[in-house]
## 1
Amino acid sequence: MVDTAEAEQLIRQGLGRRGMRRANGSNGRSGTSSSGRELSAGAGDVLSEGIQGYGRLTQSPGLQRLKLFLNMTVSPILLIAFVPNLVIFIWFTVVHCDGSYWTMLTKLFSQRSIITGIADMWRLVNTPSTPVVSILVAYGLYALVMMRLLPGKMVKGPVTPKGNVPVYKDNGFVYYLVTLALFWGLTYFLRPYGYTPSIIYDRFDEVLFALNAFSLVFCLFLYLKGLFAPSSSDSGSSGNVIFDYYWGTELYPRIFGFDVKLFTNCRFGMMGWALLVCVHAVKSYELHGFVDSMFVSVALQLIYITKFFWWEAGYMSTIDIMVDRAGFYICWGCLVYIPGLYTSPTFYMVSQPVILGLPLAALFLICGAVAIWVNYEADMQKQMVRGSNGNCLVWGRKPELIHARYCLENGQEKESLLLASGWWGMARHFHYVPEITLALCWSIPALFHNILPYSYLIFLVILLVHRTFRDDEKCARKYGSFWQQYCKKVPHKMVPYLF
Ligand SMILES: NC(=O)C1=CN([C@@H]2O[C@H](COP(=O)(O)OP(=O)(O)OC[C@H]3O[C@@H](n4cnc5c(N)ncnc54)[C@H](OP(=O)(O)O)[C@@H]3O)[C@@H](O)[C@H]2O)C=CC1
Ligand SMILES: CC(C)CCC[C@@H](C)[C@H]1CC[C@H]2C3=CC=C4C[C@@H](O)CC[C@]4(C)[C@H]3CC[C@]12C
């Protein structure tokens, strides 16, 4: 994972200035000083008093440069080269290796070289056919039209480091319900005529190929748009082309008024996730009839995604939207990684069905449902406390709050509430524990024949642990001593008494 927080940190110390000035000079749009604040804007952060206290400021300039090079150039290159292959590895393993990574590796390494092995694997991937491209284009256009047409209140996102307040149409939940109803309606009425959504399962290699190709080019477009035609002042270059492509050059780009991240993350990515697990359920039903393990996994994922869309406006105040710019990481991630990796447990279960029996199925279902509830309640506690300015109850008591002051980049002072009770009093990122437990609950129905159905879980653990560090650094920079106060009160990052 690229340590962007660290990269930002190093840039703030001046190591990235040369590149930044060059970039600023070349596009002339960023309007930043030479102090290198542009990238920090991408981190959704602000000037803070806490920055001077960081231990790594004492590192030697050579070491800092090396870290900067690793974080901003080497890691992004490796990720950009590796992850588009990863989704194909998963497809290849499920379809050609009986779901076994071991068989997949044996096949790849049995060639003259690993490169030949990977090339051979890619040769099995079909280029997208007309039906697949038509379905994907129709789905993308449908999502855009619905974003505009469906009713919803206009809601304000959090104020950005440059002082902008993005506005969104809060119609995600209606969109989700309408889309699922359409999916099941079409599946029911068109099956007698020989049309089934399982074509998406059968031709998933084409789907991944098409999404990969489109997304890589789309990210290039976003990179250029951020440099030459940004939608807001929350944009600019770090001076490093690779990092800019990976991380993005705009915080919330809009194209013809459409919010790009709302489209890629929610309306395409998250909705696509829901539709794909439904496709897997249909395919599994066609092949084997009702299979309880598939049911448990699909049911939990759908409840989770329903919860996501119910809370979509709250998602606008999370790291993805406030911190991450629209680049390869978030946009390619939501357009390709979610369909390719996040849906892998049920993709695997189609060809490796397992009968769990009622007691086990019920156990996984109940544990998963509890995990969803805890995760949701944690997200809601934060939202409720901030929405009511602390005038609410958390677990039946007045919330414990820290009134944290911070500054925007333009020097304007603001105040925000940090909740230090409820789930946010257990650990600073306790809500990641139920998130991980849940992923386990929808993967474990595949039982333990292979690692593949746990790929998402493994990725999630890495992502969330890394995120605890990233977010702590971001908040320490933003809130300075107020964050330290919170850390004193709630000393653990994620797991009480452990981590
Ligand atoms: N399945 C997946 O792949 C993933 C799922 N998730 C889920 O997405 C949801 C959002 O998570 P995530 O994006 O990581 O962000 P969080 O919900 O953890 O939001 C982090 C932000 O919340 C604010 N904050 C931090 N501590 C407090 C506090 N004590 N009181 C009030 N506000 C606080 C800070 O922002 P501010 O600047 O406003 O103070 C901080 O930057 C979670 O449910 C998580 O489990 C997350 C990542 C991956
Ligand atoms: C390029 C890749 C190595 C990494 C791509 C990662 C992204 C696909 C994911 C990073 C963070 C993820 C999410 C954050 C928070 C979410 C809220 C939750 O309620 C639903 C899931 C999600 C939207 C989730 C989706 C994937 C990421 C954007």
## 2
Amino acid sequence: MKVFLVGFMGSGKTTIGKKLANYLKYDFIDLDKLIESKVGMSIVEYFELHGENAFRDLEKDVLQKTEFPENVIIATGGGAPCFADNMSWMNENGLVAYLSLSPKALANRLENSKTDRPLIRHLKGDELEGFISTKLAEREPFYNQSKFVVSASDLTAERLAFYLNLG
Ligand SMILES: Nc1ncnc2c1ncn2[C@@H]1O[C@H](COP(=O)(O)OP(=O)(O)O)[C@@H](O)[C@H]1O
Ligand SMILES: O=C(O)C1=C[C@@H](OP(=O)(O)O)[C@@H](O)[C@H](O)C1
Ligand SMILES: [Mg+2]
């Protein structure tokens, strides 16, 4: 079983993904980390050097061309489902779960972890929640194509496994 976790930056894909993999004894792959290891630089550096469009091409390539192990939790980047045919590709190749959270809760989580995220690292104070609200509205039509939509507040690995019928 391949499980793809999707959702906005800060929804906890990386954090809960690791815990879920640990709980289920599955492998864990973070798509952003995989991209960083392939290009030998951070996502922030890649955006600065090559821009977002090049990143999206690379992200699609790494997502759709990697030979993932059989039992694996894959934490995707927040934009991955919203570009090219990535969302339908994930639905055809695994089980996709959207970790849903309000803009306010996302802003609270992201306030202290902006620096590794090129799309928000320059935003100050109220700008962050405004940006999240606008971007989330654009992205939700993609996220909502997921087989499972799960509230990401106070989510535990055990509960997520249960919702996904894996626990
Ligand atoms: N369940 C949670 N409760 C509170 N904070 C969380 C939770 N999950 C993640 N965070 C925090 O939110 C930030 C983003 O989490 P992360 O797992 O990197 O999200 P994503 O991969 O979806 O962008 C991190 O600072 C992390 O510590
Ligand atoms: O939402 C986005 O467009 C992005 C989210 C990031 O991943 P996280 O969702 O894990 O922060 C990372 O892929 C990149 O900074 C772009
Ligand atoms: Mg992540």
